């Protein structure tokens, strides 16, 4: 029996719980490798490797989600909203997506990464530079007409009501 056949024995509710467990495990793995580099080589080196990992991973993640959703080549902001809602951490972080005209605002209301670092007495993760790579790459892979800019993200917090906020713009060609 393959593992996928094994999954058929579980109810929908159990599978949803398993997805939550997988998501938390993935996020924990992302955090432990980062903290390992951070502790041994410092924040700058950890951020370099984080950026390189996200530069590659975000495209892989976006392509797989785009394929799963059967999105057309240029699905616009509606397609981006659907894809953002299926990212690995989307079901474990509290977020909000708003579309207004040719812009989509994605807000991470509560972030497990920053909360975990806070609980451990660690400084916040300076995620803005990596977030730009991550969110821009994800959006471009979903629809190459979409650009991304940071509205608020540590260490440049401009909106204290959330952990981070990103603005996506659908541009005419």
The CATH C-level name is Alpha Beta
CA-based gyration radius: 17 Å
Strand pairing plus helix content: what structural class?
alpha+beta
Helix count equals 6
- Given as residue ranges, the uncertain stretches (5+ residues, pLDDT < 50) are none
Mean pLDDT rating:
93
Strand order of the largest sheet: 1-2-4-3
Largest beta sheet, briefly?
Answer: 4 strands, antiparallel
State the helicity in percent bands.
Answer: 40-55%
Instruction: Give the tally of β-strands.
Output: 4
Tell me the fraction of residues in β-strands, as a range.
15-25%
Number of self-contained structural domains: 1
Outline, from the CA principal axes? globular
Describe the structure.
- The protein is an alpha+beta fold and 173 residues long.
- A hairpin with a 2-residue loop joins strand 1 (94-100) and strand 2 (103-110).
- It is built from six helices and four strands.
- Helix 2 packs antiparallel against helix 3 (43-69) and helix 3 (43-69) packs parallel to helix 6.
- It has a single domain (10-170), classed as 2-Layer Sandwich (Muramoyl-pentapeptide Carboxypeptidase, domain 2).
- The chain has a four-stranded antiparallel beta sheet with strand order 1-2-4-3.
- The protein has helices at residues 3-7, 12-41, 43-69, 76-84, 112-119, 128-142; strands at residues 94-100, 103-110, 146-153, 164-170.
Layout of secondary structure:
Blueprint (H helix, E strand, L loop, with lengths): L2 H5 L4 H30 L1 H27 L6 H9 L9 E7 L2 E8 L1 H8 L8 H15 L3 E8 L10 E7 L3
Antiparallel strand pairs: 1-2, 2-4, 3-4
Helix pairs in contact: 2-3, 3-6
């Amino acid at each position: 029996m393959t593992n996928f056949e094994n999954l058929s024995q579980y109810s929908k509710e159990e599978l949803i719980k398993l997805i939550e467990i997988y998501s938390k495990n993935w996020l924990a793995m992302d955090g432990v490798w980062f903290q390992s580099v951070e502790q041994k080589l410092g924040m700058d080196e950890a951020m370099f490797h984080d950026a390189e990992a996200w530069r590659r991973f975000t495209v892989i993640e976006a392509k797989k989600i785009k394929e799963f959703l059967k999105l057309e080549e240029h699905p616009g902001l509606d397609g981006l909203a659907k894809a953002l809602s299926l990212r690995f951490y989307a079901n474990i972080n509290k977020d909000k997506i708003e579309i207004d005209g040719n812009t989509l605002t994605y807000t991470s209301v509560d972030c497990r990464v920053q909360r975990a670092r806070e609980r451990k007495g660690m400084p916040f993760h300076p995620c803005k530079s990596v977030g730009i790579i991550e969110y821009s790459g994800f959006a471009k892979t979903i629809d190459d007409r979409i650009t991304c800019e940071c509205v608020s993200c540590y260490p440049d917090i401009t909106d204290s009501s959330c952990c981070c906020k990103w603005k996506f713009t659908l541009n005419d060609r």
